Amino acid sequence: MPEPTDGSTSDAGADRVYTDALRPLIPVIVRRRPTLLHRPRVSDAVKAMKAEQARLKVEAQAMAGWPLNLASPPQVAAELKAVDA
Q: What pTM does this model have?
């Protein structure tokens, strides 16, 4: 089936979602004012979260009994299975 040349897709449902739901939002998004952030508070929150993350990593490794990479789902899953068994 050849691709439409009028900018639409061959999927009528997708075209309807775009024209009826998404396209009308473009002017709203363009007019939207940016969200203002209080940079010092954000910086303090990030530091606190990183400190808590480091504390929890040490706690998890202590409970496992060896270094544990919490960013590795297979490693975490294997440890949880071992604890659950």
A: 0.53
